[in-house]
Structures are given as structure tokens and as C-alpha cells.
Design goal:
cytoplasm, transport, single chain, PhoU-like_sf, 238 residues, PhoU_dom
Length: 238
């Protein structure tokens, strides 16, 4: 995903960081899939796997951050090279936070298991949203690896679907708690779990925005999908 430079050593450094960012993405993707498995089967074994992966995710994120700081200090990059390193840094931060959300999901699943109410909670719809978030992360990593702005735009639109699923689930859960107040405590765990899933979608969106920033040189944060479409249709690259 990087262009050739006069310095082959600089190329090697960029390629190494790129590979490590994708390695981090793969770890987080596996962590999220396991968290979804924990939710689907209410498996304590899957919960333990998510917790164990969290340590590896945090360690790798710190290593990438150190590598990026070293490259910037030594190379003092400008223009597209600087954008690339900034994109790596922001993608890394968002991936690490997705790992945090997967970890939160696992903790909430464990809390629900401990409460003994796992089989009576309305968790079916939430599993659908969790699978959507997992699939969105996979697409995000692919878009980042290929610097595909079209795929990045599709990710922004798909995140809106996850947000809509979250809003719908919250309404369903509120109705459920009103009908059976005895399940309020366990239902709140489910609500926090739903919020973690929604946040994973948000972080995937952030990474997709970095793809557009890197390719087009435009910061599209806080802009509507329609505005971003206009940018992609009328590029003004530096």
C-alpha cells in the first residue's frame, strides 16, 4: 500500500509498519469474532479467549506507536508520507479501541452468564448486530489495505445500519424491562453490550475516513455521506 522512495530503508520501515497494522487488525478481528461467539453460545471459554487476546492487542498497539514515533523523528516526512503515517497512527488507535469494546462485550456476556438469565434475555437481535459489526471490521481492514475509497464509502453507509439496529434494540430492551422489572439488572448488561457493538461500528467508520483522507488528502470527519460522495466525485488531490 506504500509508494517507492529513494531510500529503500524508508520503504522497508513503511512496509513493516503497514504489515504490523494489518497484524493488529487481524488480532482484533479474531477477538471480535470470539466475542460474537461468546454472545451466541454464552460460552465462558470464548470469554476467556477474548480476555487473553486483549493483552496481545495492547502490546502490539504500543509497539506500532513506538515505531511510528521513531520513523517520524528520524525521517521528518512531509506530504503524502506524513499523511500515511498519520493514517497508520489513527487506524492503530481505532483498532485498539475496537479491541477494548470486544473485551467489554466479553465481560458483559460473563456478567449475564453469572446472573443466570442468559436464556431468557432478548439477545437474538443483538447477535445480528454483532455479526454486522464483525463483518464491517473485515471490510474495513480490506479497504485500508487496498486504499479503496469506494469500499470506504460503503463502510460509512453500513455503519448507519448498525446505528439504526442499536436504536431499535434499545427500544425493544426498554419495553422488555418495563414488562419484567426483575430482569432490569441483566438487561442493563445487554444494553452496555449493545453500546459496545455500536462503538465498534463507529471505530470502523473512523478507519474508513482515514482511507479517504490518505487517498484524497481531505479530512472528511463530521461530514455527511452525501458530502463525502461529492469529494470523491470531484477530487482535488494535493
Amino acid at each position: 500500500m506504500t509508494e517507492k522512495h529513494l531510500s529503500s530503508q524508508f520503504d522497508a520501515e513503511l512496509n513493516r509498519v503497514s504489515a504490523r497494522v494489518m497484524e493488529l487488525g487481524g488480532l482484533v478481528e479474531a477477538q471480535l469474532r470470539t466475542a460474537v461467539q461468546a454472545l451466541t453460545s454464552f460460552s465462558t471459554e470464548a470469554v476467556d479467549q477474548v480476555v487473553a487476546t486483549e493483552k496481545r492487542v495492547n502490546a502490539l498497539e504500543m509497539e506500532i506507536d513506538h515505531d511510528l514515533s521513531t520513523i517520524i523523528a528520524r525521517r521528518q516526512p512531509t506530504a503524502r508520507d506524513l499523511r500515511l503515517l498519520i493514517a497508520f497512527s489513527k487506524a492503530t488507535a481505532n483498532l485498539e479501541r475496537m479491541g477494548d469494546e470486544a473485551h467489554k462485550m466479553a465481560r458483559m456476556v460473563q456478567s449475564i452468564i453469572d446472573s443466570g438469565t442468559a436464556r431468557v434475555l432478548p439477545s437474538g437481535d443483538l447477535r445480528v448486530a454483532a455479526e454486522m459489526a464483525s463483518d464491517l471490521l473485515r471490510k474495513t481492514l480490506d479497504a485500508f489495505a487496498r486504499l479503496d475509497t469506494g469500499a470506504a464509502l460503503a463502510i460509512l453507509k453500513e455503519d448507519d445500519r448498525i446505528d439504526a439496529e442499536f436504536d431499535r434494540f434499545v427500544r425493544t430492551l426498554i419495553t422488555y424491562m418495563m414488562e419484567d422489572p426483575r430482569k432490569i439488572s441483566a438487561s442493563l448488561d445487554l444494553l452496555f453490550l449493545a453500546k459496545a457493538i455500536e462503538r465498534i461500528g463507529d471505530h470502523s467508520k473512523n478507519v474508513a475516513e482515514q482511507v479517504i483522507y490518505l487517498v484524497e488528502g481531505k479530512d472528511v470527519r463530521h461530514q455527511s455521506v452525501e458530502q463525502i460522495v461529492s469529494i470523491l466525485q470531484n477530487p482535488a488531490r494535493p
